[in-house]
Amino acid sequence: MAEIIDTRIEPDRAIERACAILSEGEPVAIPTETVYGLAADATNADAISHIYEMKGRPRFNPLICHVSDIAMAEKHVEFDPISRRLAEVFWPGPLTLILRQRPESTVHALASAGLDTLGIRMPDGFSRQVIARFGRPLAAPSANTSGKISPTSAAHVEADLGSKLKLILDAGPAQIGLESTIIKLDDRKLRLLRPGGLDVAEVEALTGLTVERSETAGAAIEAPGMLASHYAPGAAVRLNAEDVRQGEALIRFGGKPLPGESEAAIVLELSPAGNLREAAANLFDYMKKADASGAATIAFGPIPAEGLGEAIVDRLQRAAAPRAG
Ligand code: TXA
Ligand code: MG
Fold this sequence. Notes:
It is found in: Cytoplasm. This protein is an alpha/beta fold and 325 residues long. It folds into two domains: 224 residues, DHBP synthase (Alpha-Beta Complex); 85 residues, Rossmann fold. Helix content is 30%, strand content 20%. It has ten helices and 15 strands. The strands form three sheets. It has a nine-stranded mixed sheet with strand order 2-3-7-4-6-5-9-10-11, sandwiched between helices. Helix 8 links the parallel strand 10 and strand 11. The two termini are 29 Å apart. About 2% of the residues have low confidence. The chain binds threonylcarbamoyladenylate and magnesium ion (MG). Magnesium ion (MG) binds next to loops.
């Protein structure tokens, strides 16, 4: 079973143990402000292959490399002026940039799945201190079995991967609760590969550029988070419910009761005041709670697809998508 160290109580021991295990080429679960990550030395092929094995993840999915500062990022990727500005303003934070990998970068091709680009981000929170001490980028997907809901607490990680892991660092619930926004710059055009914890409107306001949404989301597997049926709970998912059917779990938003709630297996409110930040932070935890209620279907009340709601609705549509075998 995994050892769990609370970083708020024993920060020094947490960093020491994490770095020792990472140096042995083993993954460690680390807290970031978006979701918990399954981190390994991005320069060590063996360490990276452990991530893919633990997650049961298809090898063609590239991983995000996490750095502690821009100087570390610069050793591995080439910044153009626009990406540099985005990094300066939004890092540390929930933004992943897809940039050309430098020929001299020591990040292993297994992390980038052989692409000539790297997904790179500087996370906020305790994980950044771990990376700074480790001194090399950490490749880290979300710390969950492939295709399942991302973990926003150490308890989520323990329930899913606790028997396979040596160490989980516990920094409390993730503040943002949604994975990072992924943006790629092509010919001075910004493309959104995955909506996430950073509102795209903030990127547009800073750069004065329009961020293009992919028309073919899910068709071209440029960011496999774009695959249909991702982030899936065990139960079926019904979106934009206007009422609740007997025995369903209900997850609603904005404090508005739906007809039939007294017949629901469980009723969870993402944000009574209709605050999308609060809703994002609660989303994955509530999906797990609704799943655990044993209901065969989780009904979601309507959620506006604006601002952070774009990422929330994206995750819900994937959760509701037809499942592969
Ligand atoms: O918030 C997050 O981004 C979390 C935390 C742990 O940092 N990480 C995360 O990683 O969500 P993961 O592996 O679940 O999702 C990474 C996404 C995938 O959809 C992958 O395809 C995309 O990033 N990606 C990584 N490198 C890429 C590249 N070079 N080109 C295009 N997409 C890339
Ligand atoms: Mg993931």
